[in-house]
Amino acid sequence: MIVNIIFAVLSIVLYFFINNRGLADGPSPTVLNLLLSLLFLAFWLLFGIYRGRERKVNFLIFAILFWTIGLGLSLIAMNLGPNPLILVTFAFMAPVNGFMFFGFMTIQLFIVCMFLPLILTCIGYFLGRMKSHKNYETKD
Q: Cα dist. 23→39, 65, 121 in Å?
């Protein structure tokens, strides 16, 4: 469980600082921000696969709770206006901020993008479990 918490907090904090261009009132995200967002999603997908291969159910529960609580707080904070939860919102927006590089991205689509890490983590976990299950079958 400690590994899950460290990975989650470090990834969010790191991306909060390196991928926040254009989150507030600033220049629009660049191609680099888009690549950083894709890299963030790849990290969570791969970590999900790794933890799924280890058959760590507590990781799946942790990931679902972590992303659901964080995204829930973010959505609440977005509707409350200026408040102390705005940092939580920025922390969960920063990793996928690069998708705002696309001109057609509206705030509604951006909010949907905030759910991508949760979705890809779950997909990765189940892919890892399937791979792990196949390994067990071939060992018999």
A: 18, 24, 24
